[in-house]
Amino acid sequence: MPGVLLLVSSAREMPLADGTPHPAGFFPGGALTAHERFVAAGVDVVVATPDGKPPFAEPDGLEEIFHHPDENKPDENKPDEDKAIEAVLAGRRRASGSIAQSIAQRQSIAQRLSKIDGFRRPAKLADMSDERLGAFDAVFAAGGHGPMVDLADNPDVTRLLGTLHRKRATIAALCHGPAMLLCAPANLDGQWLFDGYRMTAFTDEEERQTPSGKLGMQWTLETALRNAGAVFDDGRSAWSPHVVVDRNLITAQNPNSAGAVADAVLKSLNAP
Q: pLDDT digits over 3-59, tens only?
């Protein structure tokens, strides 16, 4: 039975560009989708956070833009007057049926997560030996802004990535989860371990549409990955599902890519 380490941030806030704290955590929908698909395929899943503390569901992840992105974007080909009318109508939809649907969806996600012991009492990454880490066939980093806080510069994540990469195990991440790749160790040539790899992640365009992005982020993930040496590959449009596979690295752009990236991980493990 393949074993997957489902790595989730336990951060609860992040500093904005002006230094003020803003809620940050994990996006429960994407994490739940991956967990349920892995378990259904017979994969042994261990949920872990860096410090062993239960993960915090990020409030920003409950915003309409993450659930009904197409309703939040006017058609750019229409005249300005039509765009204004469309924006008003979209607002009314969000104030009625869409919001009710999202609330019901969030409640369902919360209830299902509450029944998974790993999310209530996750393992502590820092306590895992190299031998224990090497026993996993894959790591999957869930999304949310939290990974930018406690996965992007973490010595235990560095240890995890080095251990799994040496055995060519699957390294996968969703949305902001690829922030963990920023602390990957150097390769034999002294370069970033993923230098020249094709990958995707939550884009700067998508970030500008989030509540924290509108307030001003200290840094953005797409730019950081590009600067590190990634060959960044985003989808045709913001919020559309997009998964990139390059060697043993699997990355997904946004929460709408959760199902597709989970399936890509299962394929890499030859799981049904």
A: 999 999 999 999 999 999 999 999 999 999 999 999 999 999 999 999 999 999 998
Give the Cβ contact number of residue 71 at 10 Å.
Answer: 16
CA 116, CA 191: separation in Å to the nearest integer? 39
| pLDDT above 80: residue 66 | no
Cross-strand bridge partners of residue 174: 252
Closest C-alpha to 247, from 233, 268, 231, 230: 268
Domain 3-61+117-268 sits in CATH 3.40.50.880: yes
> Angle 165-168-170 (CA atoms, 0-180°, nearest 5)?
85
Question: Which residue type occupies 46?
Answer: V
d(CA 70, CA 92) in angstroms, rounded, equals 14
Contacts of 200 (CB under 8 A, 6+ apart): 178, 232, 233, 234, 235, 242, 243, 244, 251, 252, 253
Residue 242 to residue 211: CA distance in whole angstroms: 22
Q: What is the pLDDT of residues 211-221, one digit of tens each?
A: 999 999 999 99
Domain with CATH 3.40.50.880 in the chain: 3-61+117-268
Alpha helices in the chain (DSSP H): 28-40, 80-94, 97-114, 117-120, 130-134, 147-150, 155-166, 204-207, 211-215, 221-228, 258-268
What is the rounded distance in angstroms from the CA atom of residue 202 to the CA atom of residue 197? 16
Distance CA 151, CA 11 (A): 9
The token pair at 73 is 């974007």
The three-class DSSP label of residue 21 is: strand
